[in-house]
Queue: 4 jobs
Job 1
Amino acid sequence: MKSRIVIPQAAPEAYQALMNLEKYIATTSLTSTHKELIKIRASQINGCAFCINMHTADARKYGETEQRIYLLSAWREADVYTEEEKAILALTEEVTLISNHVSDEVYQNAARLFDDKYLAEIILTIITINSWNRIAITTGLRAV
């Protein structure tokens, strides 16, 4: 692959703004499990090998099991995720595939399970990982 733009060098202020959002997410009340499930699932949907590699490693560090990581792309057919995790994964998929819109059913299910602050943190985490996926894929970051 030919060399591509390096966003932090070309647009450092914009990159820093996204980093600040990532720093905010690190301070939220979201559990490490919830954060990493969001980041892995969105990255799978987007086909971002760089982010899948990073976040599966992070998930393992936080105690996530191999089984749950392997089953994540088929979470609907797996009985290893909680009701809350399934709501988060459904919302992650619909926000990531936003052209299909976020259904009232998926949104209301998440809203029923989480308070407004936690739900906002979930949504912001989904949006942020989708931004990172797009930067990594567009600029040619590779998993090693």
Job 2
Amino acid sequence: MAKRKLTQTEMPVADHAFYGLVWAGTVLTERVDRALSKAHDLPVSWFEVILWLASSPDPVPASVLGNSTMLSRSQVSRVVDALQSRGLVVRTPSARDARSVEVSLTPEGHQLFKEADATRRACLAPVFTDLLDEEDLEALSTVWKKLKAGKGGQDGP
């Protein structure tokens, strides 16, 4: 029996859109993970935490990292442990809440972020940003904001 794929016209548009998002997320994440791991020994989950830290001018409460990333709180804790053991982040007691800690990048962490972010952007350019114009990117951003506003799970970037 010959195998064939369904075409878009045979699949309901909502299903096609959903699986398109899943496909894009999976393929792009795997591509970035391979590039970051090869060039910087930095899994994409570690990069996500570093990205959040690099985007904040102040130390970030560990609980906020758990609520902001696509990782569970226990995963964030393990990633921060690994980053700390590499000298990329430091934990400090919170000035606002004695029961919590805040996390910030070290100078080495900032440097690695700059290098890894350049790798990530170069990796994505031929399969994402170079293929989409500003209108496409704005449309994707609008879709993402609508989905996030619906709180269909964890918050994202």
Job 3
Amino acid sequence: MDRTRLHALLARESAEAARRNPRSRAAYARADHLFGRVPMTWMNKTAGAFPRYLAAARGARVTDVDGHQYIDFCLGDTGAMAGHSPAPVTEAVHRRYAELGGATAMLPTEDAEWVGAELTRRFGLARWSFSLTATDANRWAIRLARAVTGRPKILVNSYCYHGSVDESLIVTAPDGTGTPRPGNVGAPCDVTLTSRVAEFNDLAGLERELAHGDVAAVLMEPALTNIGIVLPEPGYLAGVRELTRRHGALLINDETHTFSAGPGGCTAAWELEPDLLTIGKAIGGGIPAGAYGLSAELAERLLARTDLDLVDMGGVGGTLAGNALSVAATRATLAHVLTDEAFARMSALAERFEAGVRAGLDAHGLPWSVSRLGARTEYRFTSPAPRTGTESAAAADPELEDFLHLYLANRGILLTPFHNMALMCPDTTENDVDTHTEVFAAALAELAG
């Protein structure tokens, strides 16, 4: 690739973004009381000198404060996979908060059992508890795994994503050992004291780490997502399950992003058998919600332990977890929005998106790859597609990524700012997908010169 041409195109698109968005630029400039000038510092991970500011969003559309409307393939990095403010969730939230009242009263609601039963139908885990985020669901699942096994360490995949869970911020060094992930802020201790790591799709590496006998649980996504989609090779996930059982470690599937694979995530689609399952983001239809499920056998083992304080001091739970508003939103989302039928349509749209990207790559002979996980599609700047998280991380090209994101945004299309992910929601249309195909092809043509 001609880097000089890329730099010129990136400068042009950056200038155009600044010209098109004066109100967003001004809002960012005067945000003196916010740490990093944004509500959360990750909002600065955007192409261009400042983020676009949200005015409104509905379905698969976002409108910024400068009046530009976008086809939204970002969808809150999965948090809005149900679409923005879907009507059934809006109605359920209004009824709970405005009509009945009581968002959080430290009392259970009947909605919770309905949600638990539906999560069991979808994912197969028999018992469920709630959190506000998938990060907390992962933290609490880890604590339960340590309690029931008596082992101290958690094993994760290199360049995995499990939120801000301390134990997950570890990657493989060139010699195959574990090392802190670059950029980890204020770690409470050396992560190698709490964690072990193996590459995704590497059963030999996994077995080597499990052989130490100190791993309470393997916490993993059935497919890596936040470093770009890395799909499991044939037999890999079955091998993980066999090895964890042989070495006495529990298996935790984090389906927060891989929920895109279908109504029951990868666990249902690929007939997986985890001991615990964590999920968050999309299940609340945009309202903060998370959950973790346990197998019946594991739940019984934990509840039989009279030495465990699972009520107050056990480090599992939060005052707002399982609140009436979140649970009502989750019930509405699962019952009426992210249905089995909706997933079938979303996956078909993602397949169309994948085909459009692939056609663009083929037209220019680009050595890139594109992968799909149900309703989620992503391209990487390498071919063949990466088979590990470390390979996927090595394929990053921040300048190229920024150019494509700015080019698309300046023409009314949003991708996830952290990477090249596009997600479909129930309101996404074929025309939305085809619009991306056209604009993406135009961007590649400009790069080719």
Job 4
Amino acid sequence: MKLHLKTFAALLSAVLGAASLHAAPVQAQSATPAPENGTFDVEQLFAGTCGFCHSDGGRAAGKGPQLMNSPRDDDFLHNRIKSGKSGAMPAFGGAFTDAQIDLIVKYIRALKPREG
């Protein structure tokens, strides 16, 4: 049986969504603290740390909401990343500095639909 990539992605999303209904509360993921030496690749970090819940690099809803064009203000996004939300999103304040979280918010604000 051949599955196209989009079909596989849809099935995987459905399975993960169903599994999340019975999952334990969200706990902080083991994000590797970003280096302080200026080599902070936000897109790569987002894909590896945030992309599991915020699909397509934050451009689409997944387990978490779509972040592109979020109506939330920057302070809200910063605080949500730093402190998390009980049962929904882990806190990353221990993994990233405030300046690094600001870079993540800037990445979110710069999201545009993918061409193609």
